[in-house]
Specification:
By secondary structure, the protein is of the alpha/beta class. Helix content is 33%, strand content 18%. It has two domains: 82 residues, Ribosomal protein L30/S12 (60s Ribosomal Protein L30, Chain: A, 2-Layer Sandwich); 219 residues, Alpha/beta knot, CATH 3.40.1280.10. The longest helix has 25 residues. It starts with a strand and ends with a helix.
């Protein structure tokens, strides 16, 4: 199984089979899923039936396995009776051609996720040296929910797509397109020259009074985040890259220099509100990066797509 990965869990496997980004080898199913009699897993039978149908359509072998065999395959992780052997997800390089293709896919005439064919927004997440797979799993799940369909990884150290992240993201990993910064400054310049708007995330107490890029997220205005503007890309709202840095070190200097805005979520323990001693408080004074991402994605979505949201809510 050199170069192959074992995807496990109902939703990750179903997503991998549906969106076919991986080279798929074979499917392992818990042996009692082939029984016709009802059992304690009857709630998941419709999902398993769909997985079997897709596997048959693709033409991959379906093998039965005992519970113990499946547990051994995935090193004891929760597999829900289904394991898929497949190749790695593709991670593309950023070039002028790949960026041009991305913009063409997101013009107003072609506004669906090229994988899921669901409504897709011109929004990219850039994970700058994030290494916590649990955070990344949650971030990717939020990304799909809010209509993003592309993720960029920074240079190492940074996570790479894996079976564990697929499971932690409830299969969202399988629905996304991935790029990696191979030459950070050059790649960022390609994106900026193409008209992308970069918004970086920062923690409390990092505001530089001489740097006009800093904003509290609650004070952002639609015109600042690409609403009603295409930035010369032909895509409205303007394609936006939300940069997420590690909780320990924040955004790297090279990436921060590329950001048009630097935003933070203001809370009651923010140093600007609570005073200079706030950083010594025994109470947590910052948000987990995955939680922050969900909040910012909601705020940005409301600012950039408010009319669309109102129409869907009616």
């Amino acid at each position: 199984m050199s170069g192959m990965q074992l995807i496990y869990g109902i939703h990750p496997v179903l997503a991998a089979l549906t969106f076919k980004q991986r080279t798929i080898s074979r499917l392992f199913l818990r042996e009692d899923y082939f029984c016709n009699t009802p059992h304690e897993h009857s709630v998941s039978r419709s999902w398993i039936s769909r997985i079997r149908t897709l596997s048959t359509e693709i033409g991959i072998p379906i093998l039965t396995a005992s519970l113990e065999d499946l547990r051994r395959l995935v090193n004891g992780r929760s597999h829900q009776g289904v394991v898929l052997e497949a190749g790695p997800l593709p991670v593309e390089e950023i070039t002028r051609r790949s960026v041009s293709n991305w913009l063409r896919e997101h013009t107003n005439k072609v506004n669906g996720n090229f994988l899921t064919h669901q409504p897709c927004r011109p929004l990219i997440l850039l994970l700058d040296h994030l290494t916590d797979v649990m955070n990344v799993g949650s971030i990717l799940r939020s990304a799909i929910f809010f209509g993003a369909c592309t993720v960029i990884f920074s240079s190492a150290p940074c996570v790479v797509p894996s079976a564990l992240i697929s499971k932690l993201s409830a299969g969202a990993l399988e629905c996304l397109r991935f790029f990696r910064l191979s030459s950070t400054v050059q790649d960022l310049n390609v994106l900026k020259d193409s008209g992308f708007l970069f918004i970086g995330t920062v923690g409390s107490g990092t505001s530089d009074g001489d740097d006009g890029r800093y904003r509290a997220s609650c004070l952002l205005r639609p015109c600042e985040v690409g609403f009603g503007d295409d930035g010369g890309t032909g895509v409205t709202p303007r394609p936006l890259i939300l940069v997420l840095g590690s909780e320990a070190k924040g955004i790297s200097a090279e990436v921060m220099n590329a950001c048009h805005l630097l935003v933070r979520i203001v809370g009651p323990h923010d140093s600007a509100i609570a005073g200079p001693d706030a950083k010594y408080s025994p109470i947590p004074t910052s948000l987990n990066v995955a939680v922050s991402t969900g909040i910012l994605l909601y705020q940005l979505t409301k600012l950039r797509h408010d009319n669309e949201l109102v129409q869907k809510a009616v």
